[in-house]
Amino acid sequence: MDRNFADPARERLLLDRYRLAERIGIGACAAVFRAEDLRLKRNVAVKIFSPGPTSWESELAILCRLQHPFLVGILDSGSWDDEFEGTRPFLVMEFIDGCDLRTLLARHPGGFTPAKTARLGWALAQGLDAVHSDGVVHRDVKPANILMGGSGLPKLCDFGVSRLHDGAEATIPGVTIGTASYLSPEQALGEPVHASADIYSLGLVLLECLTGAKVFPGSALEASIARLLHDPSIPEWIDTDWRQLLTAMTARGAAQRPTAAECGEALFELQLRQPAHAA
Prior knowledge:
Keywords: ATP-binding, Kinase, Nucleotide-binding, Serine/threonine-protein kinase, Transferase. Its EC number is 2.7.11.1. This is non-specific serine/threonine protein kinase. With 279 residues, the protein is α+β, with helices and mostly antiparallel strands. It has two domains: 7-94, Phosphorylase Kinase, domain 1 (2-Layer Sandwich); 99-278, Transferase(Phosphotransferase), domain 1 (Orthogonal Bundle), CATH 1.10.510.10. The protein has eight helices and eleven strands. It has helices at residues 56-65, 101-107, 114-133, 185-188, 195-211, 220-229, 240-249, 260-272, and strands spanning 13-14, 18-26, 30-37, 42-49, 74-82, 86-94, 99-100, 136-137, 146-148, 154-156, 163-164. The protein has a six-stranded antiparallel beta sheet with strand order 1-2-3-4-6-5, covered by helices on one side. A three-stranded antiparallel beta sheet has the order 7-9-10. β9 (146-148) and β10 (154-156) form a beta hairpin. It is globular. The N and C termini lie far apart (41 Å).
């Protein structure tokens, strides 16, 4: 993978407009670069997919229909014809000058204040409500896919494994898609996945933000099995209202979980109950 996205890609000009700079992320089938938009004189993020079959068309279709302040927006798309590797499609997205939530949590091993967690959760619930209202399931809500900009508010990114509710590829029976530590029980079982799976994952993210510890650590197999055997452990010191919300969000029965809109309302109320200096 590193060979496909090595340093020689730097300074390459895409669409006679986007000059690639340093690589800022890499995954199984794509790499993300910071780039300069020479026309509008601003930084953008360019996600370049590896040659061969990828999910880029699905991701493009989903991003084009999703516009929300708490979702990373798409700006352009195209293809890069490499004489050695073949055609590589790419997406141009807004650049978030900050870090992801995973990195931020590593800097705060004790977790965040309830006020900060409620504000972050409210924003993410708002973004997921827009996603779900447009018939999309993200399927990989986790700290690494939550970008934190200068405003302190998050933007959900990486819709590479997302699917439309009514899409023919919404679920492949018996196949698990997502990140083990944040999977819903139905994802761990390879069962049909709906919007409620994102709510479960968001509940795990918020619990991690409050405690500073991953709820289901260990190997992919250990983490997947753990959520099938027991519910997340919510420490007694967490406020009752928080406990009730997190318990509902991480219910093993998908139908028992609140919607993203309901989570947003509850998290907004939790913000209001916090002292002004507690952020």
